[in-house]
Amino acid sequence: MLRLIRPWSASLTQNMKKFYFQIRSYPGLIFFLCIPWTTIIIIGSCLPGKDIPSLTSLPHIDKVVHLLFFFNFFLLWRIYYYKKTNYEYYILIISSLFGIASEYDQRYCVVGRSYDIKDIIADSLGALLGLFFSRWLMIDTPSNNKP
């Protein structure tokens, strides 16, 4: 069984890295993916509680949604700023602060929504996983090999 998985996972890894190298050469496209994704998060966090579909059939699915949204948020902005290696920490901090701000916005400004510390943890964890994933993508890249 392991013999079947190894070649498949190796080719998936190579294809993911190849896609990453190709897409980062189009910063305008990445920027125009970053802005709508950020807007989707803002709109989603500002919707009144009655307008949010119920996801109660699976336990903690809302935390998974938070994690995935902020994973993608971090990853898109990190790819956009891939040449600036020190920006990854700024993006991580901004992602976490953005999650905290959206929870406080829900607590004080949005009708039918409440503050949940677990959502902040899921947002920050998603951004942190995005950081680790982006570092994994950038291993052995031509731009990281300094002359």
Write out key terms for the chains shown.
mainly alpha; single chain; 5 helices; 147 residues; 71% helix
Word description of this protein:
With 147 residues, the protein is an all-alpha fold. The protein has helices at 2-23, 27-46, 61-80, 87-108, 117-137. It is elongated. The protein starts with a helix and ends in a 10-residue tail after the last helix.
Quick take:
By secondary structure, the protein is mainly alpha-helical. The chain is built from 5 helices and no strands.
Principal-axis shape:
elongated
- What is the straight-line distance between the termini? 42 Å
Low-confidence stretches: none
Estimated structural class: mainly alpha
> Count of helical segments?
5
- How much of the residues is beta strand, in percent? under 5%
User: How much helicity do the residues have?
Assistant: over 70%
Give the total of beta strands: 0
Please give the radius of gyration in angstroms: 18 Å
**Mean of residue pLDDT values:** 81
The helix/strand series, from N terminus to C terminus, equals HHHHH
| Main sheet attributes: strand count, strand direction, barrel closure | none
What does the secondary structure layout of this molecule look like, with pairings?
Blueprint lengths: L1 H22 L3 H20 L14 H20 L6 H22 L8 H21 L10
Helix pairs in contact: 2-3, 3-4, 3-5, 4-5
